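Sanity check record (used in CI):
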Amino acid sequence: MITLRTVTKDDVVAYWELRLEGLLRNPESFASSYEESVNQSMQSVMERMSETDDHYIVGAFNDNDDLVGMSGFIREKRLKLKHKGLIWGVYVTTDYRQQGIGKKMIEEIVTRAKSIKGLTQINLSTMATNEAGIRLYQSLGFETYGVERKALKVGDVYLDEHLMALHLE
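Expected output for GNAT family protein:
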């Protein structure tokens, strides 16, 4: 059974190990790179972790309380952008894929976001080649509003990115 809860500073080691796994196994899915991230200290990782209504990481934990999936949310801070939030860093470890965990994490974020006063839109981006992810996000009401050509360069390969939004109103 999978349990969803906010990833806390007590989970920092498990979070960082899963994050690095994602960066290493699926480099095309993240703007951050494994090479840039691997040498960060636990202290610097912990300093960036927040546990507020406006910034958090939803974790999917198995029966052994192992972190097997994660997805972050952050609300824009600037006055003219505060009506928007961003989903980032969606990742489920290989052995737990195709079980609906990603969908449950995104649903949890959307549910929480709906209770944030003044938040009317959630944005995310996903690689144009991530057909399963695009279908998942569309099934939850996200719509593609643009495609950024050559958004990422992994090695010698340029990758396009779908920009997607869910309007909460």
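The longest strand covers residues 143-154. If this sentence no longer matches the regenerated tokens, the check is flagged for review.
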